[in-house]
Each structure stands twice: as structure tokens, then as C-alpha cells.
Design goal:
Blueprint lengths: L3 H15 L2 E6 L9 H11 L2 E9 L7 H10 L2 E8 L2 E2 L2 H7 L3 E4 L4 E2 L5 E3 L7 E3 H17 L3 H12 L4 H26 L7 H10 L10 H7 L3 E3 L2 H28 L1
Parallel strand pairs: 1-2, 2-3, 3-5, 4-6, 5-9
Antiparallel strand pairs: 7-8
Length: 261
């Protein structure tokens, strides 16, 4: 495992190569507003600077948080980039849209914007909002296309009776909000000089993929219109070694927690 001094050394070298101040967000838990206060404290310590790079590893989270993170970081810099060593999915991909560029390597992945919401019956479980919406769409199509719509309606009614109507409305709002945030971030930052691409990229990321985990690599991201900087040579080695160091750190912490239990 990389020791703290070694991780600090890699961060320092990355800052030299990128001529930036580097922040790290590495998490296997959903991205939410709990990040904001620690992030603000770190930004205050750095102070206003020309360029900030966020090394980001996240599988996504709440729909509102990425916008808040982007706006907060941009209070402290003139240029903002996201560095993705491995994975920045769903809500984390939305965060990328608020950057001026995204730095990616050969294994780096973005993904469709599909924020997490509460499960309709198991409230402590988070599920991709599109999964719920496709389920409701499936029921609707089953009733319309069924040879026996009465039976289909009865089955669907039993399922829908378990759903909170307020939650269903919240799901629709979350889908609309993800589109709105994507358009806003793209128009303000990533695609401010290419407004004709904003609707294309927004549609692709919010509606163009059926799999929540679909891997959008750097080539496909470029083809979509996202500003991708490819990391090569020493820069990529530093980024990847940082990722491996944090991954090992988290695994060891998990093992320690399991041993306590």
C-alpha cells in the first residue's frame, strides 16, 4: 500500500505536470451533499488559484450534488478539470460536464447520467432512477399491447398500489433535473464554445444508453463532443499509481472493519 508520504509525493508531481492544485475524491459510497463542507474547508486552505484538478473516482449518487460541487470549486479557480483514473459514473459523469476538460487514460470510464433514488418499496435501498422509470413504462406497454388488458391491468394495479405516488412524481422530477443540470453545466463550461452540441450530448447521456453501467471510454467521450485530454507517459503513470494507492487503502480499511465485526 502507498504510504501517506508516497501519495502526497504523487499528488505533488501531478500538480507539477498539470500546473494545478489537485483535489482527490475517491469513494465507493454514493456521492451526496456530505462532501460539501469538507470540500469547502480544503478549498479555503488552498485559497483562490488559477487551476484546480479533481481526481475523481465515484459510481454516482444524488442528482443535485454534482452541480453544487462544480459551483463551489469554481468559486476558487479560473480553470477546472476532472481527472478520471478509472470510473466516474452517473452523477459523477454529470460533475465532469462542469469542467473545462476531462483527463482520461486507456481504462477510464464515464457513464450515462442516471442518478440514484430511493427504492419504491425498500426505502433504505438506492436504485438508478431510469430503472424505476423503465419498469413503469414496461407496465404501461404491457397493458396497451396485451390480448387481455383486464388481467394485465389487475396485475399492474397490484404492483402500482405498492408505490408512493409522491415518489413517482419525485422520480420524474429527478429525470428532468438531470437533463436540466447537464444542459446548464455544458452551456456554462464544457461546451460553452460549441452550443450546437449541447442538446446532442445531453440527450446521449440522459436517454441514449439503456445500461446504467455502460462504459463510455475516452474515444467515445470524444466522439460525443466532450473535451477529453488523453493522459500518456509519466502523467498517466502518476494518475494510475494514485488510483492504485487509494484503492488499496480503501480495501484495507474494509478488511479492518470486517475483522471488527
Amino acid at each position: 500500500m502507498l504510504k501517506a508520504e508516497e501519495r502526497a509525493s504523487y499528488i505533488e508531481r501531478l500538480e507539477e505536470l498539470r500546473k494545478s492544485k489537485v483535489l482527490i475524491y475517491f469513494s465507493y459510497t454514493p456521492l451526496d451533499d456530505s462532501i460539501l463542507v469538507p470540500l469547502y474547508k480544503q478549498l479555503k486552505e488552498i485559497g483562490h488559484t488559477q487551476k484546480i484538478d479533481l481526481v475523481l473516482h465515484s459510481y454516482g449518487g444524488a442528482v443535485d450534488t454534482p452541480y453544487k460541487v462544480v459551483m463551489l470549486i469554481r468559486e476558487f479557480c479560473e480553470e477546472f478539470a476532472v481527472i478520471v483514473p478509472f470510473v466516474a459514473k452517473s452523477a459523477a459523469s454529470m460533475l465532469v460536464l462542469g469542467a473545462d476538460e476531462v483527463v482520461m487514460g486507456p481504462i477510464s470510464e464515464l457513464g450515462p447520467i442516471d442518478p440514484l433514488v430511493k427504492h419504491p418499496t425498500y426505502k433504505d435501498v438506492l436504485v438508478p432512477v431510469q430503472a424505476v422509470w423503465h419498469c413503469l413504462d414496461f407496465f404501461q406497454r404491457s397493458i396497451v399491447n396485451s390480448n387481455n388488458p383486464e388481467v394485465s391491468s389487475m396485475i399492474a394495479a397490484q404492483m402500482l398500489s405498492k408505490l408512493d405516488p409522491w415518489l413517482i412524481g419525485d422520480y420524474e422530477k429527478t429525470i428532468k433535473a438531470s437533463r436540466q443540470y447537464a444542459e446548464t453545466l455544458l452551456s456554462l463550461y464544457m461546451l460553452k464554445d460549441n452550443p450546437e452540441k449541447i442538446q446532442i450530448v445531453t440527450h446521449a447521456l440522459t436517454e441514449g444508453y439503456y445500461s446504467h453501467g455502460y462504459p463510455i471510454g475516452r474515444r467515445e467521450a470524444k466522439e460525443l463532443g466532450i473535451k477529453v485530454t488523453e493522459a500518456h507517459g509519466e502523467m498517466w503513470d502518476v494518475i494510475w499509481n494514485l488510483y492504485l494507492g487509494y484503492e488499496k487503502l480503501f480495501k484495507e480499511k474494509d478488511n479492518e472493519e470486517q475483522q471488527k465485526d
